């Protein structure tokens, strides 16, 4: 197992390297440069040239890349032109915020999705199944940024139960309870779509497993229905669902961009969007690297968990 | 399963009982900003969003008189200008201290400008200073005595005093710049009405009252600036009570605040002009009659009312009315007259040749560029001008338009926000300002008379005399129609009803020195 994980991690390194090169090339190919973005209307060729020189951007792209790479090995991701602070500080702070949001959304959607899926499979065609399917379909088909705004209107503006935006209260905030309070609405919004996907998939997997012979055998042996469903059927269905949860982790990370914008959550998705529009190459580079590394790790984790549950895969 | 449900309900209950601190405390104003600031070092920033904080932390040698774009003394008590307009001598206010306790004096002023302009200055590496060219006329700053400082210019440059009032001219504490280096932008120190207290990235910037402010300590104890990039979220936060002041309210939402007695809505036209650059070098727009026809064909009133929903006024010429002293009141906007446009097109022998129109997706001061672009296209179609739109993202758009329209397009959207009536026409309407000469005259308009008026207006230091030259220039440019003059944007803000003395300025700066919020 340890060897397997080590191999997978090693294989990820060239992927990440390739990615940094692609980001560099794309950023070089799209028109516009940071100096133009900073100067806006005042971007005369003369002013742009001077500012690019001051920013160290007048060197050839290849040279810039190797300077960046050299610094990377020393743990230095450079300084953001648009934020005037070290990229590493910004990226880590932002990534941590996204991790909290996406992580809790993932936990939420996994738990809710599995429960809903199991209930609707076990009680197939009952009113509970129909109700769950109905809610789940609404969840899947609702654009998350719109859902977020609706939740804000209902629970923040009208009922005033939850704050509208941010991660901590502006005054006297800061504790874990304050964080949870701010986290609730964005996490629920972000989880909505993924919950639906997981619930639908769990339902299908469960239905398939419940038709298997060994389930009939288990029932025939006189095992309680509870035991049949949770011990025998659910565990087998989980094997099919886990990789989907791994993929959903990627969607949740990606979907976080909208949610972060709507709830003003200081995450890495909204940072990347801004960084790209202002041509802040180093910030884009640092952000993409961290997100990609996280994506690789999530998928690896999903595979490892799957192997642990299903001995056949070892 | 049951345990989980119980735990979930318990957690939800806990969340609901946690207090919601949506109401803001008395004597503290929470301002909704549109983005995270880049830096609080005034010499290094270019965005209005950052200026909204800076103008409350720092002072310049001059400032804009309340409600106008005319300069008045600030850190400089008075000044004299040499007869040839090249030497400015400032008498500085005495007894002023920076927030860190160091003295404001002539040495500090010299430090500020040398830092921006001299590459060998020890603090020049705390840049880059993208707008340093505002002061490119400055040849030498010298200390005459502790409270007298002299600026020597390389040529007469009348906008100098007004540039000193611009945020790029705000005075920072030399002691703190030396101590903090590039980190100064995150731990700033000035002489202004509010001191910097805290900057929590992506959450808030907090300023507190400067009890020793030379112009009288402000009524507010603190200001909190919160970056909220999404306009809908900003509105929700305002409605939930988490903001006291909010700027750049989308036009759709203004009405709901107007009808609500808990809020006040403010609007103020600023030094902004939205126009179409016409390619006067080649194609149909090389003919003045076709350019005038475009001005007649486009229904600016409808654009302002329907597309911009009353958040702008129809522009008459190249100079925004906010520059009251330099604006020619007699100028009437081109009326919407499709018949006249058709007649002019026929006179010019326009043969229905297709026109390429550059439209941007967004960008600073561009308002609603795509909707405006399509409305303009429809208006021109009406009089028989076939227009093909090409849409670009803002940075790409600038990269296409700023080097000039020749060989690429016949017209392009553009908007400028400036601090002096000199800036825009000088940079975008002179023959010497063609793109290949480093200017912004992307449509290649050239009229020697306008060139002369603009050059002369820089050399004259008397304001009334300058005003006369600018008014003449506006008459000629309107007649020549190098642009389609479309709109002047009105800045807006919404505040809670309990916020007192809040005003918007024509400079678009958010001056909070006199604002109070006792409740």
Give the tags:
heterodimer, A: 314 residues, mainly alpha, globular, B: 519 residues, alpha+beta, D-Maltodextrin-Binding Protein, domain 2, Dipeptide-binding Protein, domain 1, Dipeptide-binding Protein, domain 3, 3 domains, 21% strand, transport (chain B), SBP_5_dom (chain B), signal (chain B), Peptide/Ni-bd (chain B), SBP_5 (chain B)
As residue ranges, the low-confidence spans of chain A are: none
Number of strands of chain B: 18
At the fold tier of CATH, the topology name of the largest domain in chain B is Dipeptide-binding Protein, domain 3
Largest interface: A-B, 62 and 66 residues
* Outline of chain A: globular
Q: What's the CATH class label of the largest domain in chain B?
A: Alpha Beta
What structural class do helix, strand and pairing data of chain A support? mainly alpha
Which runs of chain B of at least 5 residues are low in confidence (pLDDT < 50)? 14-21
Count of helix runs of chain A: 12
- Tell me the total number of β-strands of chain A: 0
Average per-residue pLDDT of chain B, rounded, comes to 92
Question: What proportion of the residues of chain B form beta strands (DSSP E)?
Answer: 15-25%
Helix/strand structural class of chain B: alpha+beta
Explain the overall architecture.
The complex is a heterodimer of chains A (about 325) and B (about 525). Chain A has twelve helices and no strands. By secondary structure, chain A is mostly helical. The longest helix of chain A has about 40 residues, at about 225-260. With about 525 residues, chain B is an alpha+beta fold. Chain B folds into three domains: about 1-55 and about 190-245 and about 500-519, D-Maltodextrin-Binding Protein, domain 2, CATH 3.40.190; about 60-180, Alpha-Beta Complex (Dipeptide-binding Protein, domain 1), CATH 3.90.76.10; about 270-490, Dipeptide-binding Protein, domain 3, CATH 3.10.105.10. In chain B, about 30% of the residues lie in helices and about 20% in strands. Chain B contains 15 helices and 18 strands. In chain B, the strands form three sheets. In chain B, strands 1, 8, 9, 10, 11, 12, 13, 14, 15, 16, 17 and 18 form a twelve-stranded mixed beta sheet that branches. A four-stranded antiparallel beta sheet of chain B has the order 4-5-7-6, with helices on one face. The longest helix of chain B has 18 residues, at about 465-480. Residues about 15-20 of chain B have low confidence and may be disordered. Chains A and B meet through α2, α3, α5, α7 and α8 of A and α1, β10, α6, α12 and β17 of B. Chain A: Belongs to the binding-protein-dependent transport system permease family. Chain A: Its main location: membrane.
